[in-house]
Amino acid sequence: MELFRLIVVGLLLAILISLGRALYFMSTGKGDSGQMVRALSWRIGLSVGLLLLMLIAARQGSITPHGVGR
C-alpha cells in the first residue's frame, strides 16, 4: 500500500511539473510552441495514466471509496 501511495504522489508531482513547464514556455515565449504542446501532452498522458491506475486499484480492491455523502 505504501508503494501505491508513492506512485500516486510521484505521478501527481510529475503532472504539476509538466504543467509548470508549459506555463513557463507560454509566459516567456522562449522556443517554439511545440515545447508547450509537448509539456501539455505529457500532462494529459500522466493524468490518464493516474486515472487508469486508480480505476484498476479500485477494481482489485486495493483502494475503496469512503462513501462521503451517504
Descriptive overview:
This protein has helices at residues 2-28, 33-60. With 70 residues, it is mainly alpha-helical. The two termini are 26 Å apart.
Secondary structure tally, helices: 2
Low-pLDDT segments: none
Specify the structural class: mainly alpha
Q: Average pLDDT across residues?
A: 89
- The tally of domains stands at 1
Helix coverage percent: over 70%
Order of helices and strands: HH
Report the radius of gyration as a whole number of Å.
16 Å
Could you write a compact summary of the structure shown?
With 70 residues, the chain is mostly helical.
Summarize the helices and strands and which ones pair or pack.
Elements: H1 2-28, H2 33-60
Feature tags:
single chain, 70 residues, mainly alpha, 2 helices
